[in-house]
Fold each of these.
Amino acid sequence: MSPNEPVSIDKIRNFSIIAHIDHGKSTIADRLLEYTGTISERERREQILDNMDLEREKGITIKSKAVRLQYHAKDGEKYILNLIDTPGHVDFSYEVSRSLAACEGALLIVDASQGVQAQTLANIQLAVKNNLKIIPVINKIDLATANPAKVSQELRNILEVKKEKIILASAKEGIGTSEILEAIVKRIPPPRGNIKLPLKALIFDSLYNPYQGAIVYVRIVDGLVKPGMIIQTMSNGKKYEVAEIGIFRPQMQPALGLSAGEVGYIKAGFKDIKDTRVGDTITDASNPAKVSLPGYKKANPLVFCSIYPIDTEDYENLKSALDKLKLNDSSLVSEPETSQALGFGFRCGFLGLLHMEIIQERLEREYSLNLIATAPSVMYQLTLKEGKIIRINNPSFFPSKVEIEKMEEPYVKADIITPSQYIGGIMDLAQDKRGIFKNMEYLDELRVKLSYELPLNEIILDFYDKLKSRSSGYASLDYEFIGYRPADLVKVDILVNYEVVDALSFVVHKDKAYLQAKKMVEKLKEIIPRQLYEVPIQAVIEHKVIARETIRALKKDVLAKCYGGDITRKRKLLEKQKAGKKRMKKLGRVEIPQEAFLGILKID
Amino acid sequence: MELGLYLHLPFCKAKCFYCDFNSYPIKEEKEVLPYVSSLYREIDLYAKKFKNATLKTIYWGGGTPTILSGNWISNIINFLKDNFNTAPNMEITVEANPGTIDKEKLDLLLKAGVNRLSLGAQSFNDYFLKRLGRIHTVPDIISSYLQARESGFDNINLDIMFALPDQTLSDFQSSVKKAVALKPDHLSLYNLTLEEGTEFFKSWEEGRLNLPDEEVECAMYSWAIDFLKKNGFEHYEISNFARPSKRSLHNQIYWHNQPYLGIGAGASSFIKGYRYMNFKDPQRYIQEVERGKFPIEEGEKLPRRKRMGETIILGLRTKEGVSYREFKDRFKIGMDKIFSSQIAQLVDSGLLKRDEDKIQLTPRGLFLANYVFQEFVDG
């Protein structure tokens, strides 16, 4: 079957892989690629589908990708299997839902020793919602700690699947690969599109190329797309001429046409990635579909932080780095901002904490920028006494209490899956974080799903770290935004050497203000190195000091001995200390290290 | 070319709890002999390489050089004198530990031209000597000192440490007063530093070391500066005090950033703008030298900017500070051309003082020397 040969729709299978981080998604994908000869052993790199450095390091997939496999099944027929890779993290649940919408089936991969995790469960629910046929696979059965029987029981509870339908695999050892391929062919239904209907193509990912503009990854739902055709994105009505279409093998390979049921890419001179938003529908401009595909949503950042260059001269570099990142990431938003303490920078919005972390790391690593990132915040909705409703995502702009009529904060529905022995500690934690208990459900005799409604503000602080520490790392978390709710909040300002450092201000629930402020000043005292002068640190609410610590003046810093053998070592030590100092921000006379601006996050 | 020459003997009877020097405990002198023979070979290699060099000073450090017999020490010194030009009035220092010297050894040293003795007293309190892991007692210090005087040494230094675990200000004062009562010519006062890999560091990590806090350390140091000045000592370097004309010539070579040669395992050299260090491991050192090679483990050629920085941070350790004229003679550019903003800011902060001729640490700058030095290195 050459890429230009027409494909019969009943020989196509579109599937994705659902798996928790490290449960073996990439390795299984590698085995499928090798087994079908899509890529030879020689060409194979570890984790073919994850090609961003950060993805590899964090063991997660950030951008969806697709690959087309040709499989000669045991029934003697040749099949086209399109594997659509999905991001594996809660921050990208919208992207996951769109990737799943492009498929008819999904492999559910669960680690034989760890069992189902909360995010996986959330993705299973998404798959079920999208009517996907799920093929459960228990991976890593070769491990000494593997307990396939237990995991199998858990899967049967969740999926109501027969025991015989669960495939046991070890991607590392190559066990189960052919069973998986046969199951994909036999159990996943072929796509149901109609080539005669007007074109409807679902965008499930896009990639920016400086020469060709955005390249969109699509699943053709109905109709046919060919080079030269004028197409239209249905969310905004913009029109483009198709320059090239093709398939993934796994590198892009041009083709003559893509028809209903197929997966491939379209190059059509899309200039801005914002015009090729995941979830949008592409149609034929001359014969448009009447209704677009369901499920499209605009990018909606939930978490915000400010990013400033340590060296003010890096502002332009930071600006252009953000612009470049935004080319490939339509969910990243940023706008210029000024801080009294930090100068010129950007307020950025992210899908979630991981998304934020990835962007910060990429800025520092790929663009060699030395940055200060402030503690993350959520978007508050405030009704002012004058009647106006405003949205504030930067604590330093939070108005005075006397101006506010009503305050609201974002809430999420959080699902936590944990071994049952940790329930007590986790419930205490959720309670402490102002959680409202909703439900508790046993997945099997040892594992429980807890559901809470929680203020997002509490989640982004340190909820995840604490959840992990209270469950010896076993609990997993998934959450989704459910709306705004009234809240009693106060803004705490931090003064260093009697001057407000706006970038350190934070918003907190009234009942927690004193404790949080006290911890914050204690933490800052620890983080800020001693200076030549005594430096007071104060926490203030509406001009009232509620906590104070003093950093004692540095009295003595001298090396006793310096003889012939000490000189080099000593100079290098001083150089290292000085380099550390360069990474600090000088505010007035006080030098403050980068991590101080994340201070509120680092509080115990 | 005038040089200082440092000789290293990386052996001692027992490792002290605070010590991170390149030194290994041994039981008998004969274990040291292969090493000593390599010292001869290394000296020979250098003597051939630097035929025109003149030695201004020789300094024997360790370890404990005086665990060697007097004959070995004087033979090596004589060998140096035979193979190098030497300056008239060359200073020859030998470090010694109390209890490792007797009349016979001292006589041999004097005969070989050793004219300065540095005694590692460390404390005049048996409790603290024990805590430090020293193998001598206070009476050992006194008798070794008196023996050296009697033999004719007229330039003796005592090393004293402070800010020891559990040490109070008055403990320290009493130690210094006892040392001064012996009328030494020179005193080195070292603030205890915790170095990784030492017994002390381990205890500290385990929370078993009760060190005096910063206030007490400051009080000890500032009291000693005052007390020693009143007793006729000149505070001529951060940790060093001397009676008139009894400064250590050898150590001043380091602080003036002048060239020196290091012989022996782990010894450092600074010559023709290169800083380098010999192999630390005595076995490896011996191996290299016996193959006729310079036993250099690592080194670097310093760029001018780093040499300038080093000249300043070393010079500021001394009472005289750094002279504008000497800096300009050396680097052909004024110190103010390179470091004007750093100097101005440190003068403003009260850590540095400046006059027409030089920059110097202020009394406060003395306590915050590292803070000052940082401004002069590359970050």
Amino acid sequence: MRRGNLSILIFIILLAVGVAYIDLPNTPGIHILGINDSLQWKLGLDLQGGVSALLVPDGNYDNQTLQNEMPAVRDNIAQRVNGGLGVSEPSIRIVTSNGKPSISVELPGFSGNQTEAVNSLLKTGLLEFWNTGPSPVTIGSPFDPTQFTQYNTNNKPQFTGKDLDPNQVYVGQDQAGLPQINFAMKGDAVAAFGTFTGKNVGSYLTVTLDKVVIESAVIQSAITGPGVITGKFTTQSAQQVVTVLKYGALPIALKIASEQTIGPTLGQDSIQKSVLAAIIGLSLVILFMLLYYRLPGLLADLALLLYAATTLAIFKLIGVVLSLAGIAGFVLSVGMAVDANVLIFERVKEELRAGRLLASAIDIGWKRAWPSIRDSNISTLITCAVLYAFGSNFGASIIVGFATTLFLGVLISMFTAVVVTRAFLNLLVPTGVVSHPALFGLPAGSIATASLARRNSAV
Amino acid sequence: MFNLTGKRYLFLIISLIVIVPGTLSLIFKGLNVGIDFLGGANIELRPEKAVTIQQVRDLVSPFKLLDLQVVTGADTQLPGNQTIWIRLNTRIDKTVQTTITGDLQAKYPTNGNPNTPLSVSFDDLTLVPSGGGNARTVTVVTVSNFQKGVKPAISDIESVLSKLPLTSNPALGPSTSTPTPTTTATATATATGTPSATATVTGTPSATATANGSPTATATPKATNTPSTAAATPTPGKGTPSVLVTPTATPATASNPSNIPVKVDDVHQGTTTQTITLLTRTTVGTPALLAHFVNSGNYMQVLQNSTVSGSVASETTRNAILAVVAAAVLILLYISFAFRKVAKPWRYGTCAIIALLHDVLVVVGVFSILGWLFNLQIDALFITALLTVVGFSVHDTIVVFDRIRENMQRRTSETFDQVVNASLVQTMARSLNTSLTVLVTLSALTLFGGETIRVFTGALLLGIFSGTYSSIFNASMLLVIWERGELGLGRFSRGRTPDGREARELARSRG
């Protein structure tokens, strides 16, 4: 028992050190194992501003097409910005000027190459597979289908991005550790791709994205399962291509009409006020736990701090963009994270009042509180899963982002409240320094001595 | 011990007192949704001098723009950072416009870059002198898009435009605009016409101007008595916006169609790359904005004035509702599974879902009432707040139900009412403590936090309070009512036992 608790304690300390490293404002970042994350906070448009661009249709589309397709374009761009997690907090609107719709995109907190970032959103994302016969085509060059008419009927590509299974497109690495794009076909295209590659062994398969060649390689054998596009990618460019492929092609090609950096929508004083409010709120929670539950409350407060630090660290790692509302939601989650502790401590108190020995009261209190912690949290996790599925299938990033952060919050709070607090208490109790009733907020003499407890338990 | 279950109808009635008016308000008045859902106007401005957000807000305050969001930024693409505004002494006709454009483009050539010619635009604005006096309509020329590296100078502009031809009847120029902000809350852009002016122009406002400024009919003032040009200014508030623009004809110019000398009154030069984006639910005509800016001495170029959609797609709201319904079904299944050891487990799930519906209705209903009583608008964050309430509500209910589940197995000799009552009393400390910590943090955020999140935190505050109330006083009470077959719920309980004891023992022997 004590040994298990000690190893949990060591784990907790390691975790605390790890998240503290990530949370530090001037953290050096993580630069190992191919990961290159400078671990900077991403603040929302309201807190830090960002970049704003007006994207207008590029090409001749009649007004009816534009009106019909723009909502799909907006959703697609929102998904590209958000990736799968929905935590990037962009603001994307359809702007209509003189009856012509275009798209206004605001991305939070861009410090790097803005034009590059916006451009990657603009890739139409038209992926095509061509048979180019015995000749390879230079990567990066524009592709002209008319040169390969004899291999591709009607100058039509053999396969397009629509044939890909979006769930199986991801960035991988080849033997040399260079980034590549893994893909697999879906539906009928699986068999068709196998047949096609089988018939054309020795020919070059050329892959183009928006009519620019990204790979041209010899077909070694029939590809019946997943394939890879090796191309010449950096991790970043491969990720961009994957993002574009995952969410499909834009129905309308776009170009940048204007671009500007924008300042925060909220004034500095508004931010300071909210931070102050958050600190006041958190302090009140900590104080309340300390006064009401005494020693366990103190331990719960420690666990709460670990919860806050871990959550923030994970937010940083997965790139959650913090807006004012996001911070408010986080503060709220801290308030809710004490719930499991409250449940357990109330139970422990009950068992102590019933005359149990401290160690067994803690043990039984925990066991009794567990089903309600488990069931209530699982139901919240179910809600998150459903919201996530709905949001990502229907392109509603606001719902996806909420589900992601709530899901993480629930998992972390269960860990800190149940595992961490319990380890602390179990380590302290056998030392005997904590047996005074006042430490548990109970009247003097209400914690049973060993003999009394034995008598009670015999009853 | 408190007898909570005995007062169950009182608690239900308290809930209904909140829910019924809220639901009625929701049905008849709906929700007062803001720009995030409805969209509105997006106005991009380039000021003469850099200004703060507060200065912009003060400047446009007479327009009473709803849901105004002001964002300042810096353009990264437009070449040059300078805009020139030239205020002329009068309105000018097409010929003079062409002359001015030609002169300026000759002075500032494109240097072989035909894609970026100098942009010269003309706006006829009705200005009211700051010291009072008659309003007059003049043309303001906005010059922008200078080639990279070109530094326009005011003196150059003045000398280029020192000799301008006479203009013909300015009454035939493009539409008038008024310095008095006249706004419409609809999405249709409306030229702010001046119907009140016609009353004084001796009954013959027969001129109509088309959008491009070339008149299709000439003004035919029959009478020569002088109509007051000041009458061209509509009184704020009562001027109904008119699509038809009534030119303000003055007899002097009408009788002498082409003898007005044109000269430059004032030249302003921009000094900043700052851009200002106004996002508002109110649509304002560009001329009205420009006239207001020039009148107040804050020259600004209107780069764009367009309508925008909401940032929340209409499907998002629908999907959120569907998702919550789907989640409710799954939660119902999960609770039925988790409570399989007690009798009639699906009742617990149903009551938890009813409590959830209760909380959602309370929040939505109260905000619907606040919407038309205090014009409180809901934004995109309201959806997030509702989803949080949904999660919290079920969470809270299950904690109470869990205690009932446990006690049902231990206290087999008591009636169902007694077991529920005991469970409620036992979990009361926990329920209140958890809610208290959450409500305290939320109150701090609502009271001291920024104004932009007040709807969000307010909705959460209400929803979490309601969630705690409904898990203690509604969900459990419904279980009792159902168990006793009151309110006609008896038909839903097959083989009901008065105290549920047999069923429990049966369940125990199974579990």
